[in-house]
Specification:
Number of domains: 1
Strand content: under 5%
Helix content: over 70%
Number of helices: 7
CATH class: Mainly Alpha
CATH architecture: Up-down Bundle
Number of strands: 0
CATH superfamily: Phosphate transport system protein phou homolog 2, domain 2
Shape: elongated
Distance between the termini: 57 Å
Order of helices and strands: HHHHHHH
Length: 230
């Protein structure tokens, strides 16, 4: 009876932790969308909303981190249960960093005020949509314990890297042809880099799912691959 009660209590704890991860994921996805829309519309109101969400995300991260540590101390989980809690600790850090990237993008709206953008925002918005879609897929993989999504997101991350490289090349070209817009072009380079990092964090989340289910750390594969190439 005691064991059954303990198991139910642990399940309730895990469900709450998962819920917090998904809540954070929804918030940071909204932050990215609003930050890019803020640039497109030159809307300082959207900037304020991104900053408000940032505070909520940060609070959720702290609360969830504390809860993870309490569950480990209280329930002493092992095997897959322990791996999931450790994965959640990693995930909330990645999600908080996505929120940080959204904040960086949003604050650029103030710098772009009254200036023409150095390039069309359409490919930048498309890149942001792609990164947010990757995040949604990674979180869905977390819910379903889907280990196959990690490989798919690695491919999409390479595509996102290519988009980043093309946009940065275009921005560098605009700097050489229009020196008066160098400052705006540099700011847009930072926006593009922030969006690309969202994809990196989404890929990380999918990798943590593999570790939960299979007990394999895919990051070690990446380190070994880089060592072999060097």
């Amino acid at each position: 009876m005691v064991a059954q009660h303990t198991a139910k209590a642990f399940d309730a704890d895990i469900d709450l932790l998962r819920s917090n991860v998904l809540k954070m994921g929804g918030l940071v996805e909204r932050q990215i969308a609003r930050a890019v829309d803020g640039i497109r519309l030159m809307d300082l109101g959207l900037v304020a909303e991104v900053l408000q969400d940032e505070e909520v995300v940060n609070r959720l991260q702290v609360q969830t981190d504390l809860m993870c540590n309490q569950v480990i101390a209280k329930r002493q989980p092992i095997a897959v249960d322990l791996r999931e809690i450790i994965a959640i600790l990693h995930m909330i850090n990645d999600l908080e960093r996505i929120g940080d990237e959204a904040k960086k993008i949003a604050l650029k709206v103030r710098r772009f005020q009254g200036e023409a953008l150095p390039i069309s925002l359409a490919p930048v918005s498309a890149m942001a949509n792609e990164a947010c879609d990757m995040l949604r897929l990674a979180l869905d993989a977390f819910v379903r314990h889907d280990t196959l999504m990690s490989g798919a997101l690695h491919e999409r991350d390479r595509s996102l890297d290519s988009q980043r490289d093309r946009l940065i090349a275009e921005l560098l070209g605009s700097m050489s042809t229009t020196p008066s817009r160098v400052s705006a072009a540099l700011d847009m380079v930072l926006v593009v880099q922030s969006i690309e990092r969202v994809g990196d964090h989404a890929k990380n989340i999918a990798e943590y799912v593999v570790n939960v289910v299979e007990g394999v750390d895919r990051r070690h594969d990446a380190i070994a691959s880089r060592a072999w190439l060097s």
